[in-house]
């Protein structure tokens, strides 16, 4: 299998995903600015397999995914059951940092029914060659970071600006949006009858739909986005 960076390499340069409305001189409130800077700080944290808190988060993810199965170690072939490419998940996390693990853990803890339904591929007619769950999650985190302009000083696209306003109302907005994006991606996967080689196309379609929802005029909280209705607790 290819790694997460190889999966996403190039798709963000396509014209279809560069469909951005530039907004100049947008001003955020102090609360919005504070929460944006906190989120941007999270994005900058690399995954460090030597840090005890990162190790504990990884163990917590396993416990949430397989509560009745004992994990043999942080390096184990068991991780492949969760959708990692090899026995050491830290290899995949290097593509997007600690926030991608935080996103997966938030998904597992907050929406366990959705998490397990997607992890076990329980809905619809599945492809012979399915997307690996955990690695797909890392790609979704990276896609959201790009879509929301979180690597820039301030977002300059309308979806990113509107997201900061939603973030001001709910500090967990990025994590919730991640869960919605995962559900939406799987729904797109099934609708397109996709297989592994079409993953980039599915992720592109997911991003376009989220961008459309983020510019809706009547959305004032992250849970008002239409895709939120896909989630099950």
Describe what this molecule looks like in 3D.
The structure is a single chain. The protein has 233 residues and is mainly alpha-helical. 52% of the residues lie in helices and 0% in strands. The protein contains 10 helices and no strands. The protein has helices at residues 4-8, 30-43, 52-65, 90-93, 98-110, 112-119, 133-147, 158-169, 173-191, 199-214. Helix 5 (98-110) crosses helix 6 (112-119), helix 5 (98-110) packs across helix 9 and helix 8 (158-169) packs across helix 10 (199-214). The longest helix is centred in the C-terminal third of the chain and has 19 residues, at 173-191. It is globular, with a radius of gyration of 17 Å. The two termini are 31 Å apart.
Helix content: 40-55%
The largest sheet, given as strand count, sense and whether it forms a barrel, is: none
Q: Termini, distance in Å?
A: 31 Å
| Mean pLDDT rating | 89
Low-confidence stretches: 1-22
Number of strands: 0
Number of discrete helical segments: 10
Which secondary-structure class do the elements indicate?
A: mainly alpha
Order of helices and strands: HHHHHHHHHH
The Cα radius of gyration reads 17 Å
Percentage of residues in strands: under 5%
Which shape, going by the Cα principal axes?
globular
């Amino acid at each position: 299998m290819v790694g997460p960076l190889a999966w996403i390499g190039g798709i963000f340069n396509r014209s279809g995903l560069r469909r951005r409305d530039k907004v100049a001189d947008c001003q955020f409130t102090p609360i919005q600015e504070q929460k944006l800077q906190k989120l941007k700080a999270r994005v900058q944290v690399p995954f460090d397999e030597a840090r005890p808190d990162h190790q504990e988060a990884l163990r917590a993810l396993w416990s949430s995914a397989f509560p009745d199965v004992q994990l043999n170690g942080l390096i184990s072939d068991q991780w492949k059951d969760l959708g990692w490419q090899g026995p050491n998940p830290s290899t995949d996390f290097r593509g997007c940092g600690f926030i991608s693990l935080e996103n997966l853990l938030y998904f597992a803890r907050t929406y366990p029914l959705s998490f397990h339904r997607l992890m076990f591929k329980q809905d619809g007619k599945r492809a012979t060659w399915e997307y690996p769950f955990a690695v797909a999650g890392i790609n979704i985190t990276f896609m959201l970071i790009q879509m929301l302009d979180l690597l820039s000083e301030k977002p300059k696209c309308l979806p990113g600006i509107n997201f900061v306003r939603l973030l001001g109302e709910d500090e967990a907005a990025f994590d919730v949006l991640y869960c919605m994006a995962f559900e939406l991606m799987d729904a797109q996967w099934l609708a397109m009858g996709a297989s592994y080689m079409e993953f980039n196309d599915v992720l592109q379609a997911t991003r376009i739909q989220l961008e459309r929802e983020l510019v809706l005029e009547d959305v004032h909280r992250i849970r008002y986005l239409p895709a939120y209705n896909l989630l099950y607790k």
